Amino acid sequence: MKKLLTLLILFSNIFYFSAQERSYGDGEYFKFRVHYGFVTAGYATLKVQEATINGKDVYHVRGFGETVGVSKWFFHVEDDYQSYIDTEKDIPYRFIRKINEGGYTKDIQIDFNHSTKRATVNDKEHNETTVFSFPEDTQDMISAFYYLRNQLDTENIKTGDVVEMNMFFDKENYKFRLKFLGKEVLDTNFGRVRTLIFRPYVQSGRVFKEKESLTVWISDDKNKIPLLVKADLAVGSLKATLTEFKGLQHSFKIIAD
């Protein structure tokens, strides 16, 4: 169950929507069951709340994941990710990563200054503060989800298209890439739903088997809900299934039988 919440947030980076309407808002909530086959390994949630930071209106998004049951005894995971996102510009002002994954721990806060394009990284665990530059339109791991939901267009995307975006994570800049695979009607816990299928490119080796080890299904509507994730890991395979949601900004479309 290593990288439980990291995976779920990374999967969320594929949600596209044009800037005509906001696809999310205060009170939105997702809960995922993470499982190996029929065995539940853990749960993860994403929650949005209105807040202010340094006098600016933001959406405070918190992602939290942990192992449960037998999995918790074999490999304890407790991951807390937070982002403070400008309500109009969809850019991050602060990112928090506090994790414990089988004894591997991190406690990092990143403050973004978009005027100077400098990120101040406070490593609380080692009492170290460092400053890094970042390119234009850089997102953190969580804010990328919400930025793409609002800013990018899926109506004209074609099978095989690859989208890139800048991301800053921990102490490094990354170029995140994502391929659109097509459309499919998916059987979910809520009924049959029209979906868009994406494949994020990830780093192979320690966690994933190959660079194209992830497949993600999202609802083909104005919400762009993450419904299912399949991941081929270095050891075994993993699924993350949406089990609960609330606070959606738009109607959730189910195909009638």
Descriptive terms for the model:
14-stranded antiparallel beta sheet; mainly beta; signal; 14 strands; DUF3108 domain-containing protein; DUF3108; 257 residues; globular; YmcC-like fold; 9% helix; 53% strand
What is the strand arrangement across the widest sheet?
8-7-6-5-4-3-2-1-14-13-12-11-10-9
* Topology as a string of helices (H) and strands (E): HEEEHEEEEEHEEEEEE
CATH class: Mainly Beta
The helix fraction, in percent, is under 10%
Overall pLDDT metric: 86
Q: Please describe the biggest sheet, giving its number of strands, its sense, and whether it closes into a barrel.
A: 14 strands, antiparallel
Beta-strand content: over 45%
* Large-scale geometry: globular
CATH architecture: Beta Barrel
Count of discrete structural domains: 1
Helical/strand content category: mainly beta
Terminal Cα span: 36 Å
Contiguous helical run count: 3
In the CATH scheme, what's the topology name? YmcC-like fold
Which blocks of ≥5 consecutive residues have pLDDT under 50?
13-20, 204-211
Q: Care to count the β-strands?
A: 14
Gyration radius, rounded: 18 Å
Describe the protein's architecture and organization.
The structure is a single chain. Helix content is 9%, strand content 53%. It has a single domain, classed as YmcC-like fold (Beta Barrel). The model is unreliable at 13-20 and 204-211 (pLDDT under 50). With 257 residues, the protein is mainly beta. The protein has helices at residues 4-11, 69-74, 143-151; strands spanning 29-36, 39-53, 56-67, 77-86, 92-101, 104-113, 118-123, 128-133, 162-169, 172-188, 191-200, 214-219, 226-232, 237-246. A 14-stranded antiparallel β-sheet has the order 8-7-6-5-4-3-2-1-14-13-12-11-10-9.
